[in-house]
Amino acid sequence: MTRCLAIRHVAFEDTGLLTPILAARGIDLNYVEAGVDPLGTEKLLQPDLLVVLGGPIGVYETGAYPFLVEEIASLRARLDTGRPTLGICLGAQLIAAALGARVAAGPAKEIGYAPLMLTEEGQRSAIAPLEDVAVLHWHGDNLELPPGAERLASTKSCPNQAFAIGKHVLGLQFHIETPPQALERWVIGHACELAQAGIDPGALRAQAARHGASTAAAGRRVLEEWLDGALP
C-alpha cells in the first residue's frame, strides 16, 4: 500500500480536503505530531508521500521550539532523495529552510481569502486551476525561493506564494486544503492572532461563505493534478 505521512503542528490544521483524495487512491494516511512525536530522518524517509502542514510558529524560532532543528534536518534528508513532498504554509517554509533559503517576517500579515498572481510557470503547473480563485491566506512570514525551485505564484506582500521543484516538491504559502466548514476551528484556534491583527472573525466567515466552495473545488483539482505527477 502507498503510504502518506502528514506532519501536524497544531491539531486543527490537518490534511482536510486531501484526506478523501488519498483514501480514493488507496493511500494510507497517518499523522505525526510535531513537538510530541520524534521527527527523525528514518521516519521522514519511509513514506511514499510526505505532507508538512501549517502552524503558528516561525521556522527560525528554534530556541523556543527546538524540535524544529530535527524536523528541518530530516526534511533535508528526504528532499535529497527526490521523494514526493508537499508543504503547506509553515510546511512550505520548512522545506525552503531545509534547502538553505531564508524565511523571515514579511511586510504584512495576509489573513483571509484573496486571489494569487500566477507566473507563466504557475499557469503551466498543477496550480493552474487557482487562476482567478480566492485562496485562504493565513501567514505573516515570507520565504525566499529555494535553490532549483520555480516560482509559481505571488501576491503584493509575498513574492513567493508557491514554488515547485520538479514534479516531486510543491510548496504553498496559502491553504487550499481547508474546507470552508472547517474555518470556525481556525477562527477559534487563532483568536489571539486575529485580535492582535484587528481582524473581525465575522469578515472571515463572510469571505468563506462567498469563496469557500470555489476555493475547495479548485483546491481539489490542484491536489489531484499534483498527485498524478508526483505519484504516477
CATH C-level class is Alpha Beta
Based on Cα principal axes, name the global outline.
globular
Helical coverage, percent range: 25-40%
Q: Tally the helices.
A: 8
CATH homologous superfamily - what is it? Class I glutamine amidotransferase (GATase) domain
Radius of gyration: 16 Å
Number of domains: 1
What does this structure look like?
With 232 residues, this protein is an alpha/beta fold. The protein has one domain: Class I glutamine amidotransferase (GATase) domain (Rossmann fold, 3-Layer(aba) Sandwich). 36% of the residues lie in helices and 25% in strands. It has eight helices and ten strands. The protein has an eight-stranded mixed sheet with strand order 2-1-3-4-10-9-8-6, sandwiched between helices. Strands 5-7 form a two-stranded antiparallel sheet. Helix 3 links the parallel strand 3 and strand 4. Helix 3 crosses helix 4. The longest helix has 30 residues. The chain is globular and about 45 Å long. The mean pLDDT is 97.
